[in-house]
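Internal ticket - ligand job 249, zinc ion:
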Amino acid sequence: MMESTQVTPMPLWPPMYTVKKSTRSKQVRLSIHPHTGLTIHLPHRSKYSVDIESLLIKKKSWILKHLASLPPPSLREQIALPAALDLKAIDETWQIEYKFNCTKPSLFAAPGFRLVVLDKAPNLTCSLRLLHTWLKRQAETHLAPWLSQLSLKHNLPFNKVQIRHQKTLWGSCSSAHNIQLNYKLLFLPRNLAEHVLLHELSHTKHLNHSRSFWRLLSQCDPNCAQHNSALRNIESELPAWLYTERLPR
Ligand SMILES: [Zn+2]
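stdout (structure tokens):
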């Protein structure tokens, strides 16, 4: 009998990782993302120094299991023009048509939830940039009024809302009660997007993640804990091209 010579690719050990300090994490946390790999999140004001080497060894089986489940790099990095935008948060699916041999790159919305992207020739960078801009406008149209409604409903007034493309945050709230929302929220299931809006509104009363903050957020969102944990892993389910915010010209 011939022996099989099939090679199973194994993730390298020790793995490549990024360390991020965050005012939001209260404890050391690991995450694995198809686009960024392994990230070690450390609390910003860590009282103790973290021995990363021991941490990696302690979590070795978890890390290896999750790194192995990532798609191969060739697939991960291959970003194609999307055929549709599934905006679950606002219950809209837009089909995209690309038309080339046109004079100037542009994008317009046509009846029946169709987006038409025009360009001289196929150009990934240019088309994706047009889609990012359209999504930002779409978020301004839908997320801003939604935030206002929730603000009135729960009596949590805010000052201004701004839609941005934040790399790591779903949203933020300043001490002046200005709220920033990420337009990637459009791709989340409606209940999770609403949870993020309520999270930021709750920061208008508590500018921290104290017990009082979570108590208030749980009053606004009875499924708070479930939604909060669902959000931790959902990013890997979003389309890869959404992460191309710094496109080369
Ligand atoms: Zn927060």
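Auto-summary: The two ends are 55 Å apart (CA to CA). The helical segments are 52-58, 60-68, 73-77, 124-153, 190-202, 211-220, 224-234.
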